[in-house]
Amino acid sequence: MNKWTGLGLALALLALPAAQAEPAAIEWQRLSPEEQRVLQPMQERWNDLTPEHQERLRKGAARWQTMSPEERSQARARLKTWQQLKPEQREQIRKRYERFRELPPAEQERIRRSREWYRNLPPAQRQQLRERWEGMTPEQRQQLRQETRQHRQEQEHNKERPRLERDGVGGR
After folding, report:
1. pLDDT tens, position by position, 63-78
2. Packing angle between helix 87-102 and helix 105-119, nearest 10 degrees?
3. How far apart are CA 92 and CA 39, in angstroms?
4. What 3 state SS string does the chain have?
5. Cα–Cα distance measured from residue 123 to residue 131, given in angstroms and rounded to the nearest whole number
6. What confidence score (pLDDT) does residue 21 get?
7. 98-121 residue pLDDT tens
């Protein structure tokens, strides 16, 4: 084997794991009948999609098949709302979501709990909070965030304190 053949073989072997990690394109005909039914609106563009996009759509189709009629209705409403957003708004949401996904799991969970707390408020109270927030300057918003963070840390500390004292760790 000459050095060029050896070099070519080595490069091919190095590229092999990377090529295997990327999903391969899926031809429309290879989708199951149920996947084709759910993904039918994408049929004309299917072959132009990246393999990654195809795979995301297949996973979405699988998730759709497990949804209840109520969940499907809610998903359609969310899609309609999304489609009515301006492109700038969609991009802003995508960026926020990316920042969220980069957060540690504990911080993601804290944000989910806060969102759920907000969603469970009576509509009038949510409206008051929204109006208050929108009336604030960026500096006031930052100050409120800091105060909220400090309050949350104090609550966590106070939750931990009785347990420590109960376990005989507290300094009395």
Report:
1. 999 999 999 999 999 9
2. 130
3. 27
4. CCHHHHHHHHHHHHHHHHHHHCCCCCCHHHCCHHHHHHHHHHHHHHHHCCHHHHHHHHHHHHHHHHCCHHHHHHHHHHHHHHHHCCHHHHHHHHHHHHHHHHCCHHHHHHHHHHHHHHHCCCHHHHHHHHHHHHCCCHHHHHHHHHHHHHHHHHHHHHHHHHHHHHCCCCCC
5. 12
6. 55
7. 999 999 999 999 899 999 999 999
Contact, 36 vs 43, CB < 8 A?
A: yes
CA dihedral 124, 125, 130, 135 (to 10 degrees): 100
Rounded to two decimals, the pTM is: 0.53
Residue 19 sits at the vertex; the CA angle it makes with 18 and 20, to the nearest 5 degrees, is 90
Residue range 6-58, pLDDT digits in tens: 434 444 555 555 444 567 888 899 999 989 998 999 899 998 999 999 999 99
Predicted pLDDT of residue 122? 94
Distance CA 145, CA 139 (A): 10
